[in-house]
Write a structure and sequence with these properties.
Elements lengths: L4 H8 L2 H9 L7 H4 L8 E6 L14 H11 L3 E4 L3 H6 L11 E3 L11 E3 L2 H13 L3 E7 H6 L10 E6 L15 H5 L7 E5 L8 H5 L5 E4 L2 E4 L9 H5 L5 E5 L4 H14 L7
Antiparallel strand pairs: 1-5, 2-3, 2-4, 3-6, 5-6, 7-10, 8-9
Helix pairs in contact: 4-6, 4-11
Length: 273
């Protein structure tokens, strides 16, 4: 059994430390001490544009539908009592009680004081609440969460699904100033394409919103750097002209790519759903 909420809250007293690590200059000697903590094998996240407001071409399999399939595929599911990021940051813009989902075998070993085991339907309803709230989905395989929750020994079967806001997300905030080691841990789905349409008026709203600084203005039109974009879809949500669309490759491309990344985490072959 993992740690109780009392023990987890002790770990959470270290929360300000997460901001410090990201903000360290690449030239700071201490950065090399922290680099092993964000190795791609133990710290990796992918953003999914799950909100209903994301402009997409019609008749496409949406990322929230893909995430719903991941929930259905998982051997176990657990809903955390609250969003750790919003609770720690004191968020007033989005609901703090809309907590993380934990999927995979490790979810069966989380302490009941942290939340509760949940069935497929309840988790899908949780996902819809996040979609309606305009939050960004983030799927992660994170050592720090597994350690703080007391399931590090089951890390290979531990998947985190968070619903993030612009103001509080531990991964997204301060990311423009983060070091290259941290940025490399954010893996964009190749099947997700974000594009600017002819409706763009060059207002710059998307430039200000992009948490990785992947958007700039070229003349009177926004330009998205495909090498820097992480595919979160937030720019499409905030564009006042609805001039940015999120496209997905044909058919089940997003699903296949996502499942290839997390299949080994989601399901214990000795367990049945």
């Amino acid at each position: 059994m993992g740690y109780s909420s009392r023990v987890v809250n002790i770990f959470l007293t270290l929360w300000p430390f997460t901001h410090l690590v990201k903000r360290l200059s690449p030239y700071t000697p201490f950065r090399q001490l922290f680099a092993p903590l964000v190795r791609e094998e133990i710290f990796q996240v992918t953003f999914l544009p799950v909100a209903e407001e994301v402009p997409t071409p019609r008749e496409m399999v949406l990322p929230r539908q893909v995430l719903a399939r991941l929930i259905e595929e998982a051997s176990h599911r657990f809903i955390y009592n609250n969003c750790i990021c919003r609770t720690q940051e004191g968020c007033s813009k989005y609901p703090s009680d809309l907590g993380c989902l934990f999927l995979g075998d490790a979810a069966a070993h989380l302490h009941p004081s942290l939340g509760h085991r949940a069935g497929i339907e309840e988790c899908l309803e949780h996902l819809e609440r996040a979609s309606e709230a305009g939050l960004v989905g983030m799927m992660g395989h994170l050592w720090m969460d597994a350690t703080a929750l007391g399931v590090m020994h089951r890390f290979h079967r531990f998947l985190v699904v968070c619903f993030c806001c612009d103001c509080c997300c531990m991964v997204r905030t301060d990311l423009r100033e983060a070091g290259p080691e941290f940025k490399r841990t954010i893996k964009k789905l190749d099947a997700v394409k974000v594009r600017v349409t002819g409706e763009c008026r060059g207002c710059g709203t998307c430039v200000e919103t992009c948490f990785v600084g992947a958007i700039s203005l070229r003349g009177d039109r926004a330009f998205i750097d495909p090498e820097s974009c992480k595919g979160c879809g937030r720019c499409a949500m905030v564009c006042p002209q609805k001039a940015i669309e999120v496209d997905f490759d044909d058919g089940d491309a997003v699903w296949r790519e996502l499942l290839d990344r997390v299949r080994h985490v989601l399901r214990d072959d000795t367990q049945q759903t």
